[in-house]
């Protein structure tokens, strides 16, 4: 028995020793594993550091590329400017030489006196000649009108009658026709009898004083005379008339000059200098990419590019949008009407017109420095009213018509000033001026579900302790918006997700993840469709909104998307 016990004990001992050896092996392995893990962690940290550095480098590369583009554009602008200045310098040099030669010719007093006497003699001679030939000239002009040849009068036609008078006085007026591309017999160039009378009156009023001077070559010394001021202006107007005669030509066939004039009328005149060098025809502009516009025409301002891209899209699609008839000057007046005049400078500088309002995105507004959530909602509701009124420029009501009974379909069209008038009518005149610059107008009051009596009291700066005054405002506000809107606003207020509107909430731009860095250059030109006020595709929404309150329900679905769209708040 003792032997077997000894055997089992020794076997147990050996097992124990084996296990202990195994444990020590495992401990060594564990230490090795931990060491490996720490090495991996170190490598991972290094990799993250490198990744971070890569991000910074990408951003720096972007910045340097932008800077390089700016310098290229500046260089281009400077070259163009230098060329212009050199031209001007050459002209000035020529003028100085001419003046010097004139001065040397008229250096002695006796010569000047003789010249004056000669001028006087010529004046008298011209007056007598004009009187003698007055009847002949009027007859000739009448015949020309009948024949529709007044636009192509040349000195040869008039020499038989009067050597210089008609041709000399008409020459500055016809300077435009000479340079213009139009046909001389186009209907636009036929002069009416009234126009002839005007020209005749000018000939009579000048007392023939200009003509001898022209003959003597002294016309250059006069400033502000008929020739000096009328020449360039009339020449421009003639060209536009010529363009009108060719008005039916498609945009693609427009000449460089006509495209440049269109850009100037379009509010993008500052890019004409580059357009003249780059654009060969309308077709070139129609096929230009936003990158071309930036590189070749120097259009760095993203909203100027957007304005041009939208216009070109419209021309390509051959669709005449009503919003395109509202220019950027109208938009600045509209900002007054919706109570946001503080943004007029930014909108004017960006040349925001009616068509751009139609396609205005959240990011566009942020670029225009409109960051307040309340102001985003104000602009959204105001654009919606333009949509449902077919971009009628006069759809907002500025003055009271009938004070007694205003239906919600009328209130939705109230301007900021009209809301202030209403405050005066409910004995809150002293608080009305606080609405200036608040962005409060009829559409915001009715269409924004979260805009209630408390919001208005906050914007009017009525202290919370003035409970009676606040109650008085809320009562009148509820009467104004009507029972349906009141019910909708109450439901929103009582919902769990409700957060009241404040003046401090900001809209933040959507952040780009790391994966987007590679596409930044491309994305710069991508057209975002995150419109501040998307077009309502429901045709029922536009019907009846003017006539009765029923149409108001058609307006609300767009604004119900509000919390999703402008929800990036602080």
Automatic annotation (TrEMBL):
Keywords: Coiled coil, Phosphoprotein, Repeat. The keyword Phosphoprotein applies. Transmembrane segments: none annotated. PROSITE patterns: SAM_DOMAIN (PS50105). Residues 172-186, 539-548 have a biased composition (Polar residues). Gene3D superfamilies: Transcription Factor, Ets-1. Residues 559-570 have a biased composition (Basic and acidic residues). Residues 23-102 form a coiled coil. May regulate the disassembly of focal adhesions. Did not bind receptor-like tyrosine phosphatases type 2A. Belongs to the liprin family. Liprin-beta subfamily. This is SAM domain-containing protein. It comes from Amazona collaria (yellow-billed parrot). The lineage of its organism: Eukaryota, Metazoa, Chordata, Craniata, Vertebrata.
């Amino acid at each position: 028995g003792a032997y077997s016990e000894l055997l089992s004990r020794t076997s147990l001992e050996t097992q124990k020793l084996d296990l202990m050896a195994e444990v020590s092996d495992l401990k060594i392995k564990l230490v090795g594993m931990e060491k490996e893990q720490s090495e991996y962690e170190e490598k991972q940290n290094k990799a993250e550091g490198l990744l971070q550095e890569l991000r910074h480098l990408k951003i720096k590369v972007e910045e340097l590329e932008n800077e390089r583009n700016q310098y290229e554009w500046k260089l281009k602008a400077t070259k163009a400017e230098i060329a212009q200045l050199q031209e001007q310098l050459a002209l000035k040099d020529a003028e100085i030489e001419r003046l010097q030669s004139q001065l040397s010719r008229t250096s002695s007093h006796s010569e000047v006196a003789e010249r004056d006497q000669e001028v006087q003699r010529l004046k008298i001679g011209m007056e007598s000649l004009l009187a003698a030939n007055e009847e002949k000239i009027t007859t000739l002009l009448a015949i020309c009108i009948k024949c529709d040849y007044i636009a192509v009068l040349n000195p040869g036609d008039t020499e038989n009658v009067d050597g210089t008078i008609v041709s000399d006085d008409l020459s500055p007026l016809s300077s435009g026709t000479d340079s213009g591309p139009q046909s001389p017999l186009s209907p636009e160039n036929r002069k009416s009898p009234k126009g002839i009378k005007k020209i005749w009156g000018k000939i009579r009023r000048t007392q023939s004083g200009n003509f001898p001077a022209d003959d003597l070559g002294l016309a250059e010394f006069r400033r502000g005379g008929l020739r000096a001021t009328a020449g360039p202006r009339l020449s421009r107007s003639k060209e536009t008339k010529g363009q009108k005669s060719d008005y039916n030509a498609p945009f693609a066939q427009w000449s460089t000059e006509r495209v440049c004039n269109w850009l100037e009328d379009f509010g993008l005149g500052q890019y004409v200098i580059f357009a003249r060098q780059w654009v060969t025809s309308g077709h070139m502009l129609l096929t230009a990419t936003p990158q071309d516009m930036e590189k070749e025409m120097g259009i760095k301002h993203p909203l100027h590019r957007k304005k041009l891209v939208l216009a070109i899209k419209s021309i390509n699609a051959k669709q005449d949008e009503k919003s395109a008839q509202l220019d950027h000057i109208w938009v600045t007046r509209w900002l007054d009407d919706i109570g946001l005049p503080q943004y007029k400078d930014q909108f004017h500088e960006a040349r925001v017109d009616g068509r751009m309002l139609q396609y205005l995105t959240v990011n566009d507004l942020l670029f225009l420095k409109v960051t307040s959530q309340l102001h985003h909602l104000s602009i959204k509701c105001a654009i919606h009213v333009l949509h449902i009124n077919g971009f009628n420029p006069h759809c907002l009501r500025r003055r009271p018509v009938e004070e007694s009974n205003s239906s919600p379909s009328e209130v939705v069209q109230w301007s900021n000033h009209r809301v202030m008038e209403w405050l005066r009518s409910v004995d809150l005149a002293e608080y009305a001026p606080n609405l200036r610059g608040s962005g409060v107008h009829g559409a915001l009051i009715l269409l924004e579900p979260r805009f209630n009596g408390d919001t208005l009291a906050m914007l009017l700066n009525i202290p919370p302790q003035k409970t009676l005054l606040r109650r008085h405002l809320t009562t009148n506000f509820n009467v104004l918006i009507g029972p349906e809107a009141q019910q909708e606003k109450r439901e929103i207020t009582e919902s769990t997700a409700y957060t009241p509107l404040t003046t401090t909430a900001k809209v933040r731009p959507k952040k780009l993840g790391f994966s987007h860095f590679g596409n930044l250059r491309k994305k710069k030109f991508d057209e975002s469709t995150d419109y501040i006020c998307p077009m309502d595709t429901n045709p029922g929404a536009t019907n009846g909104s003017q006539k009765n309150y029923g149409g108001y329900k058609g307006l609300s679905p767009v604004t119900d998307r509000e919390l999703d769209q402008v929800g990036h708040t602080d």
